């Protein structure tokens, strides 16, 4: 799936996140996802406080995680988060990689759904307030997709090279 908006954050695995063998406890990866998700929502300018102020809650309704490799105490990791769906639900994909080797450690996704806090009803279409926040990012993405690239056979760089 194509990413609409993404972020990367660097973290170092703290001692309190590992077990007696020095390996990160599996439940902590969801917390790393959450840290990245909060930064991603800040970048969108629609974080959890803003969601609440707009009258909507966005609970996580589904989580998927795939453990590929272990991480250990004091290891530097990069957590990547990408919005890939937003129209009827919010789906964010995650990857956690070793910052030095670029090896994948964990991947997964979360799905959130908007709930109207007044009625406590699930929204089957993303509320206008979220659509207003994501629209500029969609326009930037759309513009970038229509710019000629160096690999475009009709682009000016390739014409002069022939």
Describe this structure in words.
With 162 residues, the chain is α+β, with helices and mostly antiparallel strands. The protein has four helices and eight strands. A five-stranded antiparallel sheet has the order 1-4-5-6-3, with helices on one face. Strand 7 and strand 8 form a beta hairpin. It is elongated, with a radius of gyration of 19 Å.
Identify the strand order in the major beta sheet: 1-4-5-6-3
In whole angstroms, the N-to-C terminal distance is 35 Å
Q: Which band does the percent of strand residues land in?
A: 25-35%
The secondary-structure class comes to alpha+beta
Q: Which series of helices and strands comes N to C?
A: EHHEEEEEEEHH
Instruction: Report the average pLDDT across residues.
Output: 88
Largest sheet: 5 strands, antiparallel
Number of strands: 8
* Spatial extent as radius of gyration: 19 Å
The quaternary organization reads as: single chain
Regions with little confidence, pLDDT below 50 for 5+ residues:
145-162
Put simply, the count of helices is 4
Tag the structure with descriptive keywords:
162 residues, 5-stranded antiparallel β-sheet, 3-stranded antiparallel β-sheet, 30% helix, 31% strand
Secondary structure elements and their pairing?
Elements: E1 5-12, H1 28-44, H2 48-53, E2 56-57, E3 60-67, E4 76-85, E5 90-98, E6 104-112, E7 115-116, E8 121-122, H3 128-146, H4 156-161
Antiparallel strand pairs: 1-4, 2-7, 3-6, 4-5, 5-6, 7-8
Question: Could you write a compact summary of the structure shown?
Answer:
This protein has 162 residues and is an alpha+beta fold. Helices cover 30% and strands 31% of the residues.
């Amino acid at each position: 799936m194509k990413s609409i908006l993404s972020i990367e954050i660097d973290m170092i695995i703290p001692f309190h996140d590992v077990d007696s063998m020095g390996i990160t406890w599996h439940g902590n990866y969801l917390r790393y996802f959450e840290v990245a998700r909060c930064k991603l929502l800040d970048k969108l300018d629609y974080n959890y406080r803003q969601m609440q102020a707009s009258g909507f809650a966005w609970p996580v309704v589904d989580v998927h995680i795939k453990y590929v490799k272990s991480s250990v105490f004091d290891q530097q990791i990069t957590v990547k988060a990408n919005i890939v769906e937003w129209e009827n639900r919010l789906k964010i994909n995650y990857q956690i990689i070793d910052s030095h080797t670029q090896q994948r450690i964990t991947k997964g996704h979360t799905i959130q759904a908007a709930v109207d806090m007044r009625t406590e009803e699930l929204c089957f279409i993303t509320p206008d307030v979220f659509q207003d926040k994501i629209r500029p990012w969609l326009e930037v993405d759309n513009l970038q997709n229509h710019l000629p690239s160096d690999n475009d056979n009709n682009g000016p760089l390739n014409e002069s090279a022939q």
